[in-house]
Every structure is written in structure tokens, then in C-alpha cells.
Amino acid sequence: MAKVHRIGAPETKSERKAINYLRDYLPDDYHIFHNLELPDPSGLSYEYDIIVVGEYAVYTVEVKGYGGHIRGNACEWQLASGAIHKSPIPLANKKAKVLADYLRNQHRLPDRGWVQSLILLTDKRARVRLNDVQAERVLHLDQTVAYILDPRRLPVQAVHIGHLANSIGDTIFHNSRPLHRHREIGEYRILETIGKNNLYTTLLASHRLIHTKQRFTLKVYRFEIYATPDEREKQQARILRDSEALQRLGDHPNIARAHPPFPWQDDQIVLPLDWIDGYSLRGLLESGEPLAFPRKTDIVRQICAGLAYAHRNGVIHRDIRPDNVIVPAEGPVKLVNFDCARVEGDNLQSISSRVGRQLDERYVAPEISLNPKFASAASDTYSAGIILFELLTGKPPYSKVSEVIAAGGLPNMPSQVNLGLPPDVDEVVSRMCAFQPQDRYQDLTQAIEDLTIIS
Q: Which domains does the chain have, with CATH numbers?
């Protein structure tokens, strides 16, 4: 029977079930810590359902009570209810890395010591089908102990850390704090944490008073609490970019709808958004689900419609990529995540360098890669053209924007990669992704017309 160290109280039936099972079936020299928070170097806290300190690795265990059939990919899962959630695996991996870095910094884990993330499904009726190379780490309760006891399941050559178990356990116990999940934030009831990055935590929530909409997304931004008043004001301006952009844009069918932000506690700002029940375009691309040619061109046509409206209202998105496009099963395509947006009239001088570090170079226009201050409507058009190329061929035209800069343009056209495409698509892509901004569509309504024609 493993040793259980309670940091916080289990909050769900699934968590209690998982803790009891692991306690009963893991060996005596294994340690289980549950319901705790640990900080990363930036001061953000990461939540852990269970941490197991074993003979060859430390395991972070995310407990899910999902039942029924679950299918999905590396980006999103579709649950039995039909609801689409972000895959819990990337966030679990981030937590494992945070814990590994923490233990190494405390000299409690050797350089070759390993922290492995697992997703534990406690409902025996759950049936999982995932198109994800990491799917083997999504386990049912009765598979978990065998996995943890077998060092061959680790992705590295495991080193023995059993002799360090007590010191690792002491470090976790004395440097963690009880997990305290907020059940409510303002008028919103928290249902689940669905994502976390260096800028904000994403929560799934319902509203206590509004019942016509079942779910909302909450983006919870955190201040640096020790910043000077001037620094806090700049932080707030950067944090509120998404909100400022979306409030300016109001209601458009191809743009996510935001509600007014509000402060929470002493160091957080919360931005509520309508929940969009659909796959991100990234998830759709990775799912391998075939899309008809007219559907592909229509997705990009709707992206262009949202961008054209944003541009008319003084907003440049600057971060158009498949991850920031949501494609519902029914209803219009939505643009999301305006955190990198440039809003007409803002005076944030430091935003360009920060934005430049966040962008995915497979989708940015050449001029932005050289200097993010050069962002314009034409650079958004370029990014939408790269998405069109990827939809038509299955991959972006290049992996590094330096290839385009060196060649003075795209290395090839879609019909050269996918020989079955009509030649008209090359003309649209070449106009959207021209190397010089002035050679691109100067009005996205022209691109929308051409996309309608070729579809």
C-alpha cells in the first residue's frame, strides 16, 4: 500500500476513487500527493490532482470523470455529450515540465530523472479513440498501476530514483500548498480548467443567472502584484488588448463575442466570451477528417469576412493561424484570440517585441518577421492565404519564414503540391501571399469574391 500525503482535499468523486485505487495497488515505497498547487518561476501556480513519486519516475496524474465514447486528436477531444474540449494532454505536459524544472532547481531530481504526465479516466464505461501519438498515456483506472510500474513505458532510458523518493517527497510536501479551485468567479460557476499559458488561464464556466447560454469561456489574466503603479497600468493595457479589440468590433458572425471584462481579487482581470462549441481549425487539420474543396475555400472566405470587418474598424489581428480559428459543426467560422491585435489609436510602444516572440513563423508575413511594427491589413491577408494553402495541400508552404525571405516569395504554389487542384487557386494564393504587401489584395472583399468564384 502506497503512502498517501494529503496536501488538499479531493474535490470530486473521481479524484477520491483514483487516490484510493493508487494507494491500494501501488507498492509500499511509492508516495502519493494529491490536490496541490506548485508555482513556476514566473509566480503562476499550477494545479495537480495527483503526483506519484515512484522508483523510476515522478508521475503527474490528471483525473477525468469522462464517460462514454471520446474521440479526438492532439488538439481537441469530442466527449460523448458532443461537447468539444481542448485536449488535456498539452496542459498535463506543461505541468510535468514545471514540476521537473522545480525539482531540478531544488537539486532533488537528477538531470536524467523524468517526470511523466498521465491522464486517468475513472469511468469504466469510457471508450477512447484518439489520433494522437501521446494517446497511450490516457489510461483507465485498471491500466494505471501497470503503466507506472513499468519503466519501459517511459519515453527515455529511465534512471533509478527510488533512493531519492523521500527527499523528492519532502520538497513537494513543504513547497506546495493545498489546491483551492475557485468554484465561482463573479457571477460565473467554474466547470473546468481547459488551458493555461504565460498570459492567462482559460476556464469553462456557466453563468448563475443566464440560462439561455449554457457555457462561457473565461480568460483570467494575472498582474504582477509587486509592480509599480505605472507598470501595473501598462500591464493592464496589454492584458486588455483582446477585450479592447473585441469590444470595438461588437457583434459580427465571424468574430468571437466578448462580454465586458471585470477585475477579480487583487491581481486578476477576467474576460468572459461566448463559448464556441467546435474544433479549432488546427484540430480539424490534425484530425485527418476529409473536407470537400468548397468547404475549404468557404472556411477561408469566412476568415476573410471577419478580417475585413476588423480592418474597417481599426483592428489588425496579427496572429491569424489555424489555432485561432474555430470551426463549429454548425454555424459560422469564428476568429478568436486578439491578444496580439493592434488597435487603431493605441500607444503601447513595447507591444511589438512581445508580439514578435509569440507569433508562429509559419503563418506570419515576411515584413512582420523582420519587424512586428509593420503589421497591417495586408499582413493579415498573407496569413489567411497561408491557411488556404495548408487547407488545400495538407501543410503550410514552409516551416521557417526565412525561406520566403531568401527566395523572395513562396517556394511553390498549391497545384504543384496537390496536382488535382484547379489552377485558379494558385492565382488567389499568389495574390494573398505576395511577397510585397502592396501586391496583395488591398481589399479583402476582392479575395472573398474570388474565393466564392473558385469554390
A: 3-178 (no CATH), 184-274 (3.30.200.20), 278-454 (1.10.510.10)
